[in-house]
Design a protein that fits this description.
single chain, alpha+beta, seven-stranded mixed β-sheet, 8 helices, rod-shaped, disordered C terminus
Length: 328
Protein backbone atom coordinates (compact mmCIF):
# COMPACT_ATOMS: atom_id res chain seq x y z
CA UNK A 1 0.00 0.00 0.00
CA UNK A 2 1.02 3.59 -0.33
CA UNK A 3 2.53 5.40 2.59
CA UNK A 4 4.02 8.84 3.14
CA UNK A 5 7.79 9.02 3.08
CA UNK A 6 8.94 9.96 6.60
CA UNK A 7 11.58 12.27 5.06
CA UNK A 8 9.86 14.12 2.22
CA UNK A 9 6.25 13.10 2.82
CA UNK A 10 6.09 11.87 -0.78
CA UNK A 11 3.78 8.91 -1.30
CA UNK A 12 5.63 5.69 -1.90
CA UNK A 13 4.83 1.92 -1.73
CA UNK A 14 5.64 0.30 1.59
CA UNK A 15 7.29 -2.46 -0.41
CA UNK A 16 9.74 -0.10 -2.12
CA UNK A 17 13.36 -0.43 -1.05
CA UNK A 18 13.87 3.34 -1.13
CA UNK A 19 11.87 6.52 -1.73
CA UNK A 20 12.14 7.38 -5.39
CA UNK A 21 11.96 11.10 -4.44
CA UNK A 22 14.52 11.49 -1.65
CA UNK A 23 16.23 8.07 -1.60
CA UNK A 24 15.57 7.24 2.02
CA UNK A 25 15.21 3.54 2.90
CA UNK A 26 11.59 2.42 3.01
CA UNK A 27 11.40 -1.35 3.30
CA UNK A 28 12.43 -2.47 6.76
CA UNK A 29 12.77 1.14 8.01
CA UNK A 30 11.74 1.14 11.69
CA UNK A 31 10.69 4.87 11.49
CA UNK A 32 7.89 3.93 9.19
CA UNK A 33 4.90 3.04 11.42
CA UNK A 34 1.29 2.44 11.03
CA UNK A 35 0.71 6.08 11.83
CA UNK A 36 1.84 6.85 8.31
CA UNK A 37 -0.76 4.69 6.75
CA UNK A 38 -3.20 6.51 4.49
CA UNK A 39 -6.03 5.77 6.89
CA UNK A 40 -4.40 7.47 9.86
CA UNK A 41 -3.12 10.31 7.71
CA UNK A 42 -6.55 10.98 6.44
CA UNK A 43 -7.91 11.04 9.97
CA UNK A 44 -5.29 13.59 11.04
CA UNK A 45 -6.01 15.72 8.08
CA UNK A 46 -9.70 15.63 8.88
CA UNK A 47 -9.11 16.58 12.53
CA UNK A 48 -6.90 19.46 11.48
CA UNK A 49 -9.58 20.69 9.06
CA UNK A 50 -12.25 20.54 11.74
CA UNK A 51 -10.18 22.77 14.05
CA UNK A 52 -9.60 25.30 11.35
CA UNK A 53 -13.32 25.38 10.51
CA UNK A 54 -14.26 26.01 14.16
CA UNK A 55 -11.80 28.90 14.40
CA UNK A 56 -13.16 30.42 11.23
CA UNK A 57 -16.74 30.17 12.49
CA UNK A 58 -15.86 31.90 15.76
CA UNK A 59 -14.04 34.61 13.86
CA UNK A 60 -17.07 35.16 11.66
CA UNK A 61 -19.39 35.20 14.67
CA UNK A 62 -17.14 37.69 16.46
CA UNK A 63 -16.99 39.88 13.36
CA UNK A 64 -20.77 39.77 12.99
CA UNK A 65 -21.31 40.65 16.67
CA UNK A 66 -18.75 43.44 16.45
CA UNK A 67 -20.43 44.76 13.31
CA UNK A 68 -23.84 44.70 14.99
CA UNK A 69 -22.52 46.51 18.07
CA UNK A 70 -20.85 49.13 15.90
CA UNK A 71 -24.00 49.54 13.81
CA UNK A 72 -26.08 49.89 16.98
CA UNK A 73 -23.70 52.52 18.34
CA UNK A 74 -23.70 54.45 15.07
CA UNK A 75 -27.48 54.22 14.86
CA UNK A 76 -27.89 55.39 18.45
CA UNK A 77 -25.53 58.32 17.88
CA UNK A 78 -27.32 59.27 14.67
CA UNK A 79 -30.71 59.06 16.35
CA UNK A 80 -29.48 61.18 19.28
CA UNK A 81 -27.99 63.73 16.90
CA UNK A 82 -31.19 63.92 14.88
CA UNK A 83 -33.25 64.44 18.04
CA UNK A 84 -30.91 67.20 19.18
CA UNK A 85 -31.12 68.80 15.75
CA UNK A 86 -34.92 68.65 15.78
CA UNK A 87 -34.99 70.05 19.32
CA UNK A 88 -32.69 72.92 18.33
CA UNK A 89 -34.70 73.63 15.19
CA UNK A 90 -37.94 73.79 17.18
CA UNK A 91 -36.35 76.05 19.80
CA UNK A 92 -34.98 78.33 17.07
CA UNK A 93 -38.39 78.65 15.41
CA UNK A 94 -40.08 79.33 18.75
CA UNK A 95 -37.54 82.00 19.71
CA UNK A 96 -37.78 83.74 16.33
CA UNK A 97 -41.59 83.66 16.23
CA UNK A 98 -41.85 84.93 19.82
CA UNK A 99 -40.04 88.14 18.84
CA UNK A 100 -39.13 88.40 22.52
CA UNK A 101 -35.67 89.45 23.68
CA UNK A 102 -35.71 87.11 26.71
CA UNK A 103 -36.64 84.09 24.56
CA UNK A 104 -33.87 84.91 22.09
CA UNK A 105 -31.32 85.28 24.89
CA UNK A 106 -32.35 81.92 26.37
CA UNK A 107 -31.90 80.27 22.98
CA UNK A 108 -28.34 81.59 22.66
CA UNK A 109 -27.47 80.50 26.20
CA UNK A 110 -28.87 76.98 25.80
CA UNK A 111 -27.81 76.16 22.24
CA UNK A 112 -24.17 77.13 22.10
CA UNK A 113 -23.49 74.49 19.44
CA UNK A 114 -26.41 75.50 17.23
CA UNK A 115 -25.77 76.16 13.51
CA UNK A 116 -23.96 79.45 13.09
CA UNK A 117 -26.61 80.74 10.73
CA UNK A 118 -29.23 80.28 13.47
CA UNK A 119 -27.13 82.01 16.12
CA UNK A 120 -26.29 84.87 13.75
CA UNK A 121 -29.99 85.32 12.94
CA UNK A 122 -30.93 85.47 16.63
CA UNK A 123 -28.10 87.92 17.37
CA UNK A 124 -29.22 90.12 14.48
CA UNK A 125 -32.79 90.14 15.84
CA UNK A 126 -31.57 91.12 19.30
CA UNK A 127 -29.47 93.94 17.86
CA UNK A 128 -32.45 95.14 15.84
CA UNK A 129 -34.58 95.17 19.00
CA UNK A 130 -31.95 97.17 20.89
CA UNK A 131 -31.70 99.67 18.04
CA UNK A 132 -35.50 99.93 17.86
CA UNK A 133 -35.75 100.56 21.61
CA UNK A 134 -33.04 103.21 21.45
CA UNK A 135 -34.73 104.84 18.46
CA UNK A 136 -38.06 104.75 20.30
CA UNK A 137 -36.60 106.58 23.29
CA UNK A 138 -34.97 109.16 21.03
CA UNK A 139 -38.22 109.62 19.11
CA UNK A 140 -40.18 110.12 22.33
CA UNK A 141 -37.75 112.87 23.32
CA UNK A 142 -38.05 114.48 19.89
CA UNK A 143 -41.85 114.26 20.05
CA UNK A 144 -41.85 115.99 23.43
CA UNK A 145 -39.69 118.83 22.08
CA UNK A 146 -41.86 118.96 18.97
CA UNK A 147 -45.02 119.36 21.06
CA UNK A 148 -43.50 122.18 23.11
CA UNK A 149 -42.30 124.08 20.04
CA UNK A 150 -45.62 123.55 18.25
CA UNK A 151 -47.57 124.90 21.22
CA UNK A 152 -45.28 127.94 21.30
CA UNK A 153 -45.74 128.57 17.55
CA UNK A 154 -49.52 128.31 17.93
CA UNK A 155 -49.44 130.73 20.84
CA UNK A 156 -47.50 133.30 18.79
CA UNK A 157 -49.62 132.41 15.74
CA UNK A 158 -47.58 134.23 13.11
CA UNK A 159 -46.16 133.06 9.80
CA UNK A 160 -42.61 133.65 11.07
CA UNK A 161 -43.27 131.51 14.14
CA UNK A 162 -44.66 128.65 12.05
CA UNK A 163 -41.83 128.86 9.51
CA UNK A 164 -39.29 128.72 12.32
CA UNK A 165 -41.06 125.63 13.67
CA UNK A 166 -40.85 123.94 10.24
CA UNK A 167 -37.13 124.70 9.99
CA UNK A 168 -36.46 123.16 13.40
CA UNK A 169 -38.78 120.16 12.84
CA UNK A 170 -38.56 119.19 9.15
CA UNK A 171 -39.83 115.65 9.85
CA UNK A 172 -42.68 116.58 12.17
CA UNK A 173 -46.00 114.79 11.79
CA UNK A 174 -47.65 118.21 12.07
CA UNK A 175 -46.10 119.64 8.89
CA UNK A 176 -49.34 119.55 6.90
CA UNK A 177 -51.25 121.20 9.73
CA UNK A 178 -48.62 123.92 10.17
CA UNK A 179 -48.54 124.65 6.44
CA UNK A 180 -52.31 124.96 6.48
CA UNK A 181 -52.04 127.46 9.32
CA UNK A 182 -49.45 129.43 7.36
CA UNK A 183 -51.71 129.54 4.30
CA UNK A 184 -54.62 130.64 6.44
CA UNK A 185 -52.56 133.39 8.03
CA UNK A 186 -51.21 134.44 4.64
CA UNK A 187 -54.71 134.67 3.22
CA UNK A 188 -55.80 136.73 6.27
CA UNK A 189 -52.83 139.05 6.23
CA UNK A 190 -53.62 142.60 5.29
CA UNK A 191 -51.90 144.35 2.38
CA UNK A 192 -49.33 147.06 3.05
CA UNK A 193 -51.96 149.71 2.25
CA UNK A 194 -54.39 148.12 4.72
CA UNK A 195 -51.70 147.97 7.40
CA UNK A 196 -50.88 151.63 6.83
CA UNK A 197 -54.59 152.44 7.04
CA UNK A 198 -54.98 150.61 10.37
CA UNK A 199 -51.81 152.22 11.73
CA UNK A 200 -53.07 155.73 10.87
CA UNK A 201 -56.38 155.13 12.66
CA UNK A 202 -54.61 153.85 15.80
CA UNK A 203 -52.13 156.70 15.67
CA UNK A 204 -55.00 159.26 15.63
CA UNK A 205 -56.55 157.50 18.64
CA UNK A 206 -53.39 157.80 20.74
CA UNK A 207 -52.52 161.26 19.48
CA UNK A 208 -55.97 162.38 20.68
CA UNK A 209 -55.14 161.08 24.15
CA UNK A 210 -51.69 162.73 24.04
CA UNK A 211 -53.42 166.01 23.14
CA UNK A 212 -56.16 165.43 25.71
CA UNK A 213 -58.62 166.14 22.89
CA UNK A 214 -62.05 164.59 23.54
CA UNK A 215 -63.60 165.47 20.19
CA UNK A 216 -60.71 164.05 18.18
CA UNK A 217 -60.71 160.93 20.38
CA UNK A 218 -64.41 160.28 19.78
CA UNK A 219 -63.91 160.68 16.02
CA UNK A 220 -61.84 157.48 16.08
CA UNK A 221 -64.51 155.23 17.65
CA UNK A 222 -68.17 154.42 16.88
CA UNK A 223 -70.99 155.42 19.21
CA UNK A 224 -71.11 151.88 20.59
CA UNK A 225 -68.06 149.64 20.52
CA UNK A 226 -68.03 145.84 20.38
CA UNK A 227 -65.67 145.83 23.33
CA UNK A 228 -63.53 148.46 25.01
CA UNK A 229 -61.04 147.13 27.54
CA UNK A 230 -63.17 144.86 29.77
CA UNK A 231 -66.51 146.34 28.83
CA UNK A 232 -68.78 144.83 26.15
CA UNK A 233 -70.93 147.37 24.26
CA UNK A 234 -68.93 150.33 25.58
CA UNK A 235 -70.12 153.84 24.71
CA UNK A 236 -68.32 157.11 23.98
CA UNK A 237 -68.50 158.06 27.64
CA UNK A 238 -66.51 154.94 28.55
CA UNK A 239 -63.75 155.99 26.13
CA UNK A 240 -63.65 159.54 27.53
CA UNK A 241 -63.58 158.21 31.10
CA UNK A 242 -60.57 156.07 30.18
CA UNK A 243 -58.67 159.12 28.94
CA UNK A 244 -59.58 161.26 31.95
CA UNK A 245 -58.38 158.59 34.38
CA UNK A 246 -54.99 158.67 32.71
CA UNK A 247 -54.66 162.35 33.51
CA UNK A 248 -54.14 162.18 37.26
CA UNK A 249 -53.92 165.47 39.19
CA UNK A 250 -50.10 165.37 39.19
CA UNK A 251 -49.83 164.53 35.45
CA UNK A 252 -48.73 167.37 33.19
CA UNK A 253 -48.50 165.48 29.93
CA UNK A 254 -48.87 162.00 28.39
CA UNK A 255 -47.08 160.62 25.36
CA UNK A 256 -48.24 157.32 23.81
CA UNK A 257 -45.98 156.12 21.01
CA UNK A 258 -46.72 153.23 18.61
CA UNK A 259 -43.80 150.82 18.21
CA UNK A 260 -42.91 148.36 15.49
CA UNK A 261 -43.74 145.73 14.47
CA UNK A 262 -47.28 146.74 13.63
CA UNK A 263 -49.29 143.89 12.12
CA UNK A 264 -52.83 143.67 10.79
CA UNK A 265 -54.92 140.84 9.38
CA UNK A 266 -58.44 140.28 8.17
CA UNK A 267 -60.78 139.01 10.88
CA UNK A 268 -64.44 138.79 11.89
CA UNK A 269 -65.51 140.59 15.06
CA UNK A 270 -67.98 139.33 17.66
CA UNK A 271 -70.87 140.77 15.68
CA UNK A 272 -69.82 138.96 12.48
CA UNK A 273 -68.49 142.07 10.72
CA UNK A 274 -65.28 142.08 8.69
CA UNK A 275 -62.53 144.11 10.35
CA UNK A 276 -58.77 144.63 10.27
CA UNK A 277 -57.34 143.31 13.52
CA UNK A 278 -54.20 145.23 14.43
CA UNK A 279 -51.63 144.08 16.96
CA UNK A 280 -48.79 146.26 18.18
CA UNK A 281 -46.99 147.69 21.20
CA UNK A 282 -47.14 151.23 22.61
CA UNK A 283 -44.92 152.95 25.12
CA UNK A 284 -46.28 155.55 27.54
CA UNK A 285 -44.18 158.37 28.94
CA UNK A 286 -45.73 160.41 31.75
CA UNK A 287 -44.62 163.90 32.71
CA UNK A 288 -45.77 164.25 36.31
CA UNK A 289 -45.08 166.18 39.48
CA UNK A 290 -44.72 163.17 41.77
CA UNK A 291 -41.50 161.55 40.66
CA UNK A 292 -42.01 158.57 42.98
CA UNK A 293 -44.85 157.33 40.82
CA UNK A 294 -44.59 155.42 37.56
CA UNK A 295 -43.45 157.52 34.62
CA UNK A 296 -42.85 154.94 31.92
CA UNK A 297 -44.67 151.77 30.88
CA UNK A 298 -45.28 149.51 27.88
CA UNK A 299 -48.54 147.98 26.63
CA UNK A 300 -49.58 145.38 24.08
CA UNK A 301 -52.55 146.58 22.04
CA UNK A 302 -55.18 144.73 20.01
CA UNK A 303 -57.61 146.88 17.99
CA UNK A 304 -60.29 146.07 15.42
CA UNK A 305 -60.56 148.65 12.62
CA UNK A 306 -63.79 148.93 10.64
CA UNK A 307 -63.74 149.65 6.89
CA UNK A 308 -64.82 153.26 7.62
CA UNK A 309 -61.75 153.84 9.83
CA UNK A 310 -63.17 153.45 13.34
CA UNK A 311 -61.84 151.38 16.26
CA UNK A 312 -64.70 149.05 17.14
CA UNK A 313 -62.76 146.92 19.62
CA UNK A 314 -59.85 147.94 21.82
CA UNK A 315 -57.78 146.05 24.39
CA UNK A 316 -54.69 147.09 26.33
CA UNK A 317 -52.35 144.81 28.31
CA UNK A 318 -49.50 146.14 30.38
CA UNK A 319 -46.17 144.43 29.73
CA UNK A 320 -44.79 143.32 33.11
CA UNK A 321 -43.40 140.08 34.54
CA UNK A 322 -46.97 138.75 34.31
CA UNK A 323 -49.05 140.68 31.77
CA UNK A 324 -52.26 142.17 33.12
CA UNK A 325 -55.13 143.88 31.38
CA UNK A 326 -55.55 147.58 31.88
CA UNK A 327 -57.91 148.17 34.81
CA UNK A 328 -60.10 151.19 35.15
Amino acid sequence: MLINCPECNHQVSDKAATCPNCGIKIAGNPDITNSNTPKHRKSDTKSSGNGKNKSTRWAIIFFIVLTLVFAAAVGSYYLHTQMQKQDEEAAFQQAVESNNADELQRYLAHYGAAPQIHRDSVKAMLQHMRDAERNKEEQEQLDAIDSIDYALACKINTIDAYEKYLQEHPKSKRIAEVKERILKLASNNATEEEVDFARSVCRRFFQSINAHDTDQLLSTVPTTMTRFLNRVGATNSDVVTFMEKLYKPDVNNLNFRIMEPFTAKHATDEGGSEVLRAQFTVTLSIDREDLTKERFSTYNVTADITPDGLISRFNLKKVVAQATEYSE
